[in-house]
Input
Amino acid sequence: MQQSTIKLSPSWLKVVGAEFDKPYMQELKAFLQAEKAAGKHILPKGSQWFNALNSTPFEDVKVVIIGQDPYPTPGHAHGLCFSVQPDVKPLPKSLLNINKELSEDLGVENHHCGYLQSWADQGVLLLNAVLTVEARHPNSHQNRGWEHFTDAIIQAINDHKEHCVFILWGSYAQKKGRMIDTDKHLVLKSAHPSPLSAYRGFFGSRPFSKTNAYLEAHGQTPINWQL
Output
């Protein structure tokens, strides 16, 4: 991938633009081109691969939520982790559990909606570790290079910003966030909101109120989690 062909906001190109010239990114580009040439359906659409970064400029990042890879169901993913397109019903089960915890935590009722764009617009970086997936084949683009790129994103936030909140749900996200400096940032860890694990510590973890309390304590505007 060449920087000139990447539709990425200038604020992010400044901090991670050099990644596009590295060998792993060239290999990732070749892989994605081959998948397309083979007629495979890649999600989300190409214009949304970097939606998380383009929705939340580097200077605006206050909160980071780390997901794994996009929803493999056509019509669901749009480049923000855990978020679905506005017309998707019923909502994915993990997202239903996120809404349930938000209701218990802050009394915010979002059961009607799973489109999290307004969170991203307020400084919540909704970052998947892997930015693409083959339709109907979860985890199909793991270990192809995206993880190196998203590690660089997390490292840049860790190194160049202060008082961000990192919300790490499940062991995958927690391993992904291993480089975060807990002296500079707040790291909130719990079980994943998946139905398989939500009752093992996600429910009752109160990440939304803890995030807002930390932001306010450091002179930042809290997130309005209501959709």
